[in-house]
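Hey,

Quick one before I head out. I ran the complex with cytidine-5'-monophosphate overnight. Inputs first:
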Amino acid sequence: MSAGPRLIVALDHPDRAAALETAARLDPARCAVKVGKELFTAAGPEVVEALQARGFRVFLDLKFHDIPNTVAGACRAAGALGVWMLNVHALGGRRMMEAAREAVDRVAEPPVLLAVTVLTSMGAEDLAEVGIEGPPEAAVLRLARLAHASGMDGVVCSPRELRALRAELGPDFRLVTPGVRPAGAAAGDQRRTATPAEAVAAGADHLVIGRPVTQADDPVGVLLTIESEIGRLTPPRGGLP
Ligand code: C5P
């Protein structure tokens, strides 16, 4: 399982052409790319292959959530595509995550397997409506513990959860965080943001960043600025480039 680049650029585009156009303005030595439900549904596995052919590592962000057998099959298919990172929903439960683990372990170069705990769009009231009482932070911690115990390599979490998860789950559990905004960048629709340096200082291994890079005039310039901000303030954690 490869440590991979610290920065992951979200290719939130509606079609293949737009995604590849953005990718052409990035440097695969400086970042991985994230393919989510919109792009994958529109453009299919072929866009993943096209990005990989251009040298990018791909985080396939499809958040699998189904019966264990089906999720195992989906993970096998993602593994056959050669993706670097993929994710499932921790709410699918222990048996589902263990089935995903087993499937991923059979891949020659196993992708990094993450779980999503609680969607950050959900507040306490949304959770109560689906039967999860208590503060969202408690549910995040509970599900992250379950993900850890079920063999996941890490979780996706918001910047505000990084410290608690790092303290609780140890140095080897991958924490991947979106909601990152370089100092001075527009927050857009993100609410609980952190700068790259803050997120890394709080324990993030990988930062998912979309619009501040994809909508920049000079995307590689933004990546370089982020790298130097992180490098200056916080040395990379062990094992990561
Ligand atoms: O453009 P921006 O930097 O806000 O993009 C962040 C990316 O991370 C988007 O692809 C978004 O869907 C994703 N994401 C998020 N918050 C989460 C999980 C994923 O913003 N909790």
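Residues 7-233 form a domain with the TIM Barrel fold (CATH 3.20.20.70).

Talk tomorrow,
K.
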